[in-house]
């Protein structure tokens, strides 16, 4: 099925999508994602899906959706980024792990405010 004309049209009126036969043919992952979206998110997701399906089938965009959803409800931009990583053979990158701080920080010298410590230097 050529999804692009439908997706472009549905991106303009995403609330009508549920009542179309087109919706029944969507993959379950995309149905669940779109149902959880706000109106603006639906528009962005359907526009993105229309672009992603120009040169490929649902396999990579669906994989990108699954990977992006591992950390909660993703934005269309997040899905787009993960799809880009998959298309270019990079996969998703884990976040950098920062070195752990020691459990107990070393003690520091007590600091005295004011100019009294300079006066002590002259009276010695």
Fill in the keyword field for this structure.
mainly alpha, single chain
Describe this structure in words.
With 124 residues, the protein is mainly α. It has seven helices and no strands. It has helices at residues 4-12, 21-25, 28-35, 39-52, 59-68, 76-87, 116-122. α1 packs antiparallel against α4 (39-52). The chain is 52% helix and 0% strand. 17% of the residues are buried.
Q: Which helices and strands appear, and what pairs or packs with what?
A:
Layout (H helix, E strand, L loop, with lengths): L3 H9 L8 H5 L2 H8 L3 H14 L6 H10 L7 H12 L28 H7 L2
* Helical segment count: 7
Provide the residue-averaged pLDDT.
81
**Intertermini distance:** 92 Å
Shape: elongated
Count of DSSP strands: 0
Low-confidence stretches: none
> What profile does the largest beta sheet have?
none
The Cα radius of gyration reads: 27 Å
Order of helices and strands: HHHHHHH
Strand composition percent: under 5%
Helicity, in percent?
40-55%
Alpha-beta content class: mainly alpha
In short:
This protein has helices spanning 4-12, 21-25, 28-35, 39-52, 59-68, 76-87, 116-122. With 124 residues, it is mainly α. The relative contact order is 0.10.
């Amino acid at each position: 099925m050529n999804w692009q004309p439908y997706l472009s049209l549905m991106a303009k009126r995403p609330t009508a999508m549920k009542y179309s036969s087109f919706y029944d043919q969507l993959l379950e992952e995309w149905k669940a994602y779109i149902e959880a979206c706000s109106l603006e998110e639906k528009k962005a997701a359907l526009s993105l899906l229309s672009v992603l399906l120009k040169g490929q089938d649902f396999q990579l965009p669906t994989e990108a959706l699954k990977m992006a959803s591992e950390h909660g409800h993703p934005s269309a931009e997040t899905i787009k980024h993960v799809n880009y990583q998959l298309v270019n053979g990079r996969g998703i990158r884990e976040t950098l792990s920062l070195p752990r701080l020691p459990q107990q920080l070393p003690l520091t010298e007590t600091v005295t405010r004011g100019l009294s410590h300079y006066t002590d230097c002259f009276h010695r």
